[in-house]
Amino acid sequence: MGIIGHIGRYFLLLKETFSSPERFGVYWRRTLEEMDLLGVKSVGIVALLSFFMGAVITIQTKTNIDSPLIQAWVVGFATRQSTILEFSPTIIALILAGKVGSNIAAEIGSMRVKEQIDALDIMGVNSAGYLILPKIIASMFINPFLVMVSMFLSIFGGYVAGTATGIISASDYLQGIQTGFIPYHVTYALIKTVVFAFIIATVSAYQGYYTEGGTREVGISSTKAVVYSNVVILIVNYALTQFLLI
Amino acid sequence: MIEVQGISKRFGTVEVLKDISAVFETGKVNQIIGKSGSGKSVLAKCIVGLHVPDKGKVLYEGHSFHDMDRTEMTSIRQEIGMLFQGSALFDSLTVLQNVMFPLQMFAHTTKSEMEDRAHSCLKRVNILDKDKLFPAELSGGMQKRVGIARAIAMNPKYLFCDEPNSGLDPQTSILIDELIKEITEEFNTTTIVITHDMNSVMETGENIIFIHKGRKWWQGTREELLESDNKELNEFIFASGLMRIVKKSLKG
After folding, report:
1. Residue B245 above 80 pLDDT?
2. ipTM of this complex
3. A167 lies in a domain?
4. Tell me: the pLDDT tens digits for A132-188?
5. Which end of chain B, N or C, is more open, meaning fewer C-beta atoms within 10 Å of its C-beta?
6. Across the interface, which of B48, B90, B105 has its CB nearest the CB of A116?
7. How far apart (Å, rounded) are the C-alpha atoms in residues B100 and B104?
8. Could you give the number of structural domains in chain A?
9. A109 in a domain, yes or no?
10. B194 beta partners
């Protein structure tokens, strides 16, 4: 199947996914479970990565702008701007595409090859809606919280690295992270996060849902889910940046 | 009653089903038999609506399934129970939750009523004591029993069994066959079993359809099966040593 065929089938799957649920109670319970699985269980990796990401941004910024003409607080400013505008929403989305996306594709792909999706269809359950919709809603709801945690820890990581190594004083760093703050940038980051969450959940679910074959193909679907989610995220990131910031 | 009229199905350049017509009777174990790759599973998937035939119709009590709207299709599907080759139980749910699943999705009853119904289905297939276990903790035969319990949870009018004996030892196979036969009589279901297991055919087959190279090659009862002079059918049913002994004793 060509790329146009895949895009067409992806949108048809979305149409199925968003058709009305059989039982709201069941979908709601599944959404809560997915929030735990896809969101809460990702807090650890997001926190760890964000802290060190912020630390590296601070050290690299300082070493690159080490000039008497540039004030010291600029390091804190650059760390905050890089974190909010790009690193937290985009890099964390790429990380989550790897962790959550592969999980979604493998879970749904395994269900496909073990005929569990056929079983749902034969019972009269909308399998696309039952399996995919709770994952989309859970991701779009929980990922903004993950990104906010990431923003905080990245900026905190920069503070710790900057002050511990002595490359910037605490007061300069704190001045930097407060200087020229534009609240809209956080809104922009959260809009991106919600869109990326939708992409991760749907592209990965698409790869899993149309898996054909056996366990080897489930692995291939998982890999494709991560690669295609990342590619689409990066393209959409450019489009959103141009649309929302210019 | 389920009737298929002139069903054909093609995948790419390969024509898997060629103009198949047949009637599957209510209250009987109807069997679709044939070699691997003969098209019997594709025929079954066309009947349950997982594949759309290129030509022909599938009629449930005279109503064309593929011409129905979504609501009608859903209501027919709620009357279908299916036992899959690999059982297709949901890994993350316990035995009880698996059997309760169709009830939770469609039945308008309280949770305790659903649990009672699920327990009675598990009791019917003699596996009540395993209700808290997960599918991975069960043997193949037990998984099939749970699959049957889930299939009958909604009191189905139509029961489909895709190779119910695959991977089971002969004794467990006979138990599963007997269970399918008993449930067919008890619930008066239109039961369709896809199999290539001759023991199963001889145990439970009442209306047997032999598919060969995508065509309906022969149809009859198990008594007629042994007396048929159809060359391809004979090659299929007497392929095993045991069946050749049966044939010799019949001739003797």
Report:
1. no
2. 0.85
3. no
4. 999 999 999 999 999 999 999 999 999 999 999 998 999 999 999 999 999 999 999
5. C
6. B90
7. 6
8. 1
9. yes
10. B32, B162
